[in-house]
DNA sequence: GTTAGCACTCTCGTTAATTGAGTGCTAAAA
DNA sequence: TTTTAGCACTCAATTAACGAGAGTGCTAAC
């Protein structure tokens, strides 16, 4: 499928893609010959372009327009043609780290990094919360707020904090409460969230009921929250720079823009999008390669971030297929590194 | 400024506004005569329209277009012409309450109500978090997560929960921790947040330092969070139904749309918008009446919501001046009632 | 005070003409 | 054999012209 192209074809393909990234419109042989030093005439370029089209790297929106890169073209560009100056924006890393080092709430860090990434790339950025399935519960505690209301606090080793207010119809004595707390600590803390399934919680409930005559009420609410808060599909996705979409000429079409914005409004969709990306370190999905139908005219550049070397979440950028890949790739790399560091620090 | 209009003028003005709300385009005398039973000829209507224009209730986009309502026209409509069938959508209230009664996390309730309101009105809804200045702190607690990391939990009587992870360079003994907790409870709980200013916290710090040889570190972080979390201007604003803007023909203009979406991206702006609304129960700001420049072509319908009769937050709708006021007003009323109830319940 | 009639204005949508960028092909040059 | 120049052709996009339609303001009659 991926043939080796001769050097001239490579040069021409690269030039077309770079030009198209700038202009967002079809590129003709003439423009190309003028702007890039290819040392051949437009006619030759035309021939090469025809070849590249036959091979599937280019497309023609209509006869007598120039060519635009196809998904396959972008793919080739990303895999083969980008010079590796994209590894890292140098000193930057330290500066940003400094800037954000007093952000210690995990949620803040995440949404801050989403904003940062979108600012750097001028595309919309998305970051998913640390995945719960590989996290452990590091703290469970129920606090008394008032006679009939409690606060349940759950903390994972990824530093994610979840809380819920629970109202009871009866007062819970301090003795009972501290008993429950000890019990839950013992049974739940330092376990993988994935282990804490329905069955296990049910078991706990029975056990607790035999020891204390406790109404179902508390427990029911307790694990409603539990399952809700940490269920696999339900992680939050933070967005940054939604309005950058508006600057992309491909979204000058109102219908398309509408579709896109509606999409970004739906959290489940975002989840699907960002989680449909396989586990590799940096993944790039171009156009039709995307699983989610509605973004088949977009590209994703997504990296995984880590807490103490455990993969926990995704951070990435979504934009038109005509994307400034080198810059975006380097930014996503940088920011995912920073995110990993910050979040590892924050979660102790 | 607000003259009394004769009955026929009133009827015509109302008809024009209602028609314009539906069609979003200028209304001519002919259409009006046909669609509404006004029992006069187009010519008469033309004369009346000319009068209404002179009085400032109508505008003409250009000669030989129909008329559209001016801000003043809408204002008159809202104040005088809406029949009071807008008080309440009947059985609805109970249903929604039932639907949401198991939502007990305040943040969830708020964002749920934002979504609900936007679904009902098909405009963008905004809800501000309970204002902190009139809330009391009902619970302060520091929990140990690991040797050198703590979790600070703050709960207000409005049910708002805030937490922050604090990392220390030294280990804090259990004795010291429980001492601090008692101390903070005593000094802080059930106080108005407004009282907990820099000066007061400073005093506490000194007092605590004389009793325990505690590094500054903890306290510094502690009240960073404190001031950050509950500062007056910094309440969160939840949005619902952002994408409904796209359905309004007045935002078919890309430039305008862009401006609007950018605006909604900026939380400070949202704060400014929703907090610029005076304290009355239901406020309506039409076009130029808005303080924030960028929404001078929009209308706001905003209600206050309450926790146990104390005003704490705002909930409202933003849309084009051509807004279905009766329906929106009733929806905002209903939802703000529900929100008050739910949130009062949730916060015990 | 109301209405009919009429000339006038302005927008909007359609069609037609023009422009210009770009192609593919052929034949000559290298 | 490869490259290039030349030329006829295509098609989208812009502009101009035009007619239709909606609406107005004014005047004169009812």
Automatic annotation (TrEMBL), chains A, B:
The keyword Repressor applies. The keyword Transcription regulation applies. It comes from the Bacteria. Pfam families: HrcA. Residues 107-329 form the Heat-inducible transcription repressor HrcA C-terminal domain. SUPFAM superfamilies: GAF domain-like, Winged helix' DNA-binding domain. Transmembrane segments: none annotated. Keywords: Repressor, Stress response, Transcription, Transcription regulation. GO terms for biological process: negative regulation of DNA-templated transcription. Belongs to the HrcA family. Negative regulator of class I heat shock genes (grpE-dnaK-dnaJ and groELS operons). Prevents heat-shock induction of these operons. This is Heat-inducible transcription repressor HrcA. The lineage of its organism: Bacteria, Bacillati, Bacillota, Clostridia, Halanaerobiales.
């Amino acid at each position: 499928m991926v043939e080796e192209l001769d050097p001239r074809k490579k040069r021409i393909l690269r030039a077309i893609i770079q030009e198209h990234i700038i202009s967002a419109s079809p590129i003709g042989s003439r423009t190309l010959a003028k702007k890039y030093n290819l040392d051949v005439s437009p006619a030759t370029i035309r021939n090469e372009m025809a070849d590249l089209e036959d091979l599937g790297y280019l497309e023609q929106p209509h006869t007598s327009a120039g060519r635009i890169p196809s998904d396959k073209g972008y793919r080739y560009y990303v895999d083969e043609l980008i010079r590796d100056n994209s590894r890292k924006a140098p000193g930057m890393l330290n500066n940003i780290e400094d800037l954000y080092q007093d952000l210690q709430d995990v949620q803040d860090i995440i949404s801050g990094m989403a904003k940062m990434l979108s600012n750097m790339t001028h595309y919309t950025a998305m970051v998913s919360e640390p995945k719960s399935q590989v996290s452990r519960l590091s703290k469970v505690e129920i606090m008394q707020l008032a006679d009939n209301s409690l606060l349940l606090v759950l903390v994972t080793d990824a530093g994610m904090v979840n809380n819920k207010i629970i109202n009871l119809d009866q007062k819970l004595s301090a003795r009972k409460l501290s008993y429950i707390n000890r019990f839950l600590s013992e049974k739940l803390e330092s376990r993988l969230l994935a282990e804490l399934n329905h069955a296990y919680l049910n078991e706990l409930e029975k056990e607790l009921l035999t020891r204390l005559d406790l109404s179902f009420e508390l427990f029911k609410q307790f694990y409603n929250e539990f399952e809700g808060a940490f269920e696999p599909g339900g992680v939050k996705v933070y967005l940054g720079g939604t309005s950058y979409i508006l600057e992309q000429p491909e979204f000058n079409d109102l219908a398309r823009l509408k579709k896109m914005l509606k999409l970004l409004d739906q959290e489940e969709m975002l989840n699907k999008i960002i989680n449909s990306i396989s586990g590799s370190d940096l993944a790039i999905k171009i156009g039709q390669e995307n699983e989610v139908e509605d973004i088949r005219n977009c590209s994703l550049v997504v990296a995984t971030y880590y807490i103490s070397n455990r993969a926990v979440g995704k951070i990435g950028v979504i934009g038109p297929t005509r994307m400034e890949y080198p810059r975006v790739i380097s930014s996503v790399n940088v920011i995912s590194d920073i995110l990993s560091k910050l979040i590892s620090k924050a979660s102790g």
